[in-house]
Amino acid sequence: MDQIRGFRFLGQAETCRVLLLMTLVVAFILGLQYFELTPISTGTLGNGTVPGFIESNNITKSDENEMFLAPQEATSEFRPGNSTTEVLKSYEHKFVNNSPKAYGQSRGNETASPHHPLQPKKHESSTKKPPLVVISITQMNNMLVKRHSGPNNSLAPRWGSNVDRELRDARNKIKNAALVKKDDTLYAPLYHNLSIFKRSYELMEQTLKVYIYSDGDRPIFHQPEAIMEGVYASEGWFMKLMETSHRFLTKDPTKAHLFYLAFSSRILQQKLYVRDSHSRRNLVKYLRDYIDLIVSSYPFWNRTRGSDHFFTACHDWAPAETRGPYMNCIRSLCNADVGIDFVVGKDVSLPETKISAAQNPNGNVGGNRPSKRTILAFFAGNMHGYVRPILLNHWSSSPEPDMKIFNRINHKSYIRFMKQSRFCVCAKGYEVNSPRVVESVLYGCVPVIISDNFVPPFLEVLDWESFAVFVSEKEIPNLRKILISIPLRRYVEMHKRVLKVQKHFMWHDGEPVRDHEPGNPQSHVTNKQQD
Ligand SMILES: *[C@@H]1O[C@H](CO)[C@@H](O)[C@H](O)[C@H]1NC(C)=O
Ligand SMILES: *[C@@H]1O[C@H](CO)[C@@H](O)[C@H](O)[C@H]1NC(C)=O
Ligand SMILES: *[C@@H]1O[C@H](CO)[C@@H](O)[C@H](O)[C@H]1NC(C)=O
Ligand SMILES: *[C@@H]1O[C@H](CO)[C@@H](O)[C@H](O)[C@H]1NC(C)=O
Ligand SMILES: *[C@@H]1O[C@H](CO)[C@@H](O)[C@H](O)[C@H]1NC(C)=O
Ligand SMILES: *[C@@H]1O[C@H](CO)[C@@H](O)[C@H](O)[C@H]1NC(C)=O
Ligand SMILES: *[C@@H]1O[C@H](CO)[C@@H](O)[C@H](O)[C@H]1NC(C)=O
């Protein structure tokens, strides 16, 4: 009996870890240092600069990706005959219970260890075709609740540590959080549960400690300066803020709740991918060798089989590169696709922020007030993936003047449309994620996410359905009908919420700043409405 209770607590401790990381990520972008800025005229993408164009995916998500066939990837567990609900029932992340021995044996086997019921068949890139199973945002929220309230969803640590008790305590305090109905700086409707968010945030500030392994060679490891701009910049910004954090870092790994593997998936790709090789094998090997080093040099990985280890990775390939032993880690990914192997409740969706100039990471925040937003829906972008051509087929030559659905347009017009539209369509490209989600939020445009199985950023904390519209890919023909059916009153409230959520999507230099701290003119954002 006692043993069972013990297991239960450990399970809860794991959940707490996830929650703490989540809010840790939120911490870095919570609050805003607002600068008056000139409009962006160029976008720096990957290694190139694309003057006047917004299409962020052009270079970095290049054809080498589209062509990709990595035979070593993806286990085949998908059963097409099963309905979504059936598959959902069987959806359950299993930690790789790599006893040291099993871990050794799994070396060299390139298939992902946990069998994921939604994973596509071997050799099949999930991005070329619509997914066979679609998980709605409501279902994702349910998965989250289930996982966080479930009694046992983690591996028991092999041996105890003081941090286990601290995590258990934190978990209990979060569960018993004092009821907060209203808050001066946090707008309650945005969050799943304001009381829980506030309490976990406080506890994070008071107790969370992160250890960063100093191992790993530059520039792939520990060199955030190399990745502060472009569409993958989020991983660089997180790394920089984490590595310079006074509050959260500890030099004593026995005091750490989380262990950070500080690599850049983008630099990994730039340095090791052999052009036209269509193989990620050496990238995967590089990361595996790193884990081998960590496993053999420190006891911490073995204690929890890596489940208190995390990394952030924004490159499209990161999910595929971090299977195998990494599947136990908290994987914070921009390419957060629940239809591949993203585990809701364990993994964390990292916002993809396209940063044109590192001195001004948030760009030219602002946009029209609702009455001055005369365009119903806006989209512009290259024809990457299968969704965008469908979108353009239906809407680019629509007689309805309030539908502005384009192929690629110039950057200036793109920003203007974002600021003048009610709804901004964030359609899947090659992968589920798109920098448009963050752009829409920062320009005050209600995001319309057309990307089946995309897990939106900070799902753990934010109630996405309260400020964004989710349209399934097969509903593209009904897009206008869906949008005009949203009553004006509801739209105005959604717009307000988008403005209120902006602060969670901004990066700023230095230590995390709480938005109610003095000197942080948060209100400028909302006042900055253009007429
Ligand atoms: C969860 O359950 C499994 C099997 O029922 C058990 O082996 C494992 O130790 C449990 N883990 C925790 C953390 O309770
Ligand atoms: C960008 O990268 C490509 C291929 O990696 C290379 O051929 C090209 O010279 C680079 N361009 C610049 C401006 O560095
Ligand atoms: C975008 O990509 C296409 C195809 O890869 C290339 O031909 C074109 O030059 C790129 N555009 C820019 C602005 O780099
Ligand atoms: C559907 O899933 C269940 C449970 O995982 C499995 O037993 C069954 O064989 C599947 N059905 C088909 C048609 O694949
Ligand atoms: C962790 O387990 C692996 C596999 O048994 C072993 O090779 C390694 O030495 C262990 N690490 C430490 C630090 O003991
Ligand atoms: C790799 O793992 C798969 C699935 O567990 C197994 O069928 C296969 O035999 C393994 N291959 C090697 C080389 O161990
Ligand atoms: C939020 O969480 C607190 C603490 O667990 C709980 O008392 C409260 O009922 C929850 N509120 C909502 C709206 O779920």
List key phrases describing it.
531 residues, alpha/beta, Rossmann fold, five-stranded parallel beta sheet, globular
Layout of secondary structure:
Blueprint: H1 2-29, E1 42-45, E2 48-51, H2 63-66, H3 84-90, H4 100-106, H5 137-149, H6 162-175, H7 194-207, E3 210-212, H8 233-243, E4 258-260, H9 265-272, H10 281-297, H11 300-304, E5 309-313, H12 318-321, E6 330-333, E7 348-349, E8 367-368, E9 375-380, H13 387-395, E10 403-406, H14 411-420, E11 421-427, H15 436-442, E12 446-450, E13 469-470, H16 479-484, H17 488-501, H18 523-527, E14 529-530
Parallel strand pairs: 3-4, 4-5, 5-6, 6-7, 8-14, 9-10, 9-11, 11-12, 12-13
Antiparallel strand pairs: 1-2
The structure holds 2-acetamido-2-deoxy-beta-D-glucopyranose (7 copies).
Question: If you had to describe this structure to a student in words, what would you say it looks like?
Answer:
- By secondary structure, this protein is α/β, with parallel strands linked by helices.
- The protein folds into 2 domains: 6-57 and 137-349, no CATH class; 370-528, Rossmann fold, CATH 3.40.50.
- The protein contains 18 helices and 14 strands.
- The protein has helices spanning 2-29, 63-66, 84-90, 100-106, 137-149, 162-175, 194-207, 233-243, 265-272, 281-297, 300-304, 318-321, 387-395, 411-420, 436-442, 479-484, 488-501, 523-527; strands at residues 42-45, 48-51, 210-212, 258-260, 309-313, 330-333, 348-349, 367-368, 375-380, 403-406, 421-427, 446-450, 469-470, 529-530.
- The strands form 4 sheets. Strands 3-4-5-6-7 form a 5-stranded parallel sheet.
- A hairpin with a 2-residue loop joins β1 (42-45) and β2 (48-51).
- α6 runs antiparallel to α7 (194-207).
- The protein is globular.
- The N and C termini lie far apart (66 Å).
- Mean pLDDT is 76; it is low at 1-81, 98-126 and 516-531.
- The structure holds 2-acetamido-2-deoxy-beta-D-glucopyranose (7 copies).
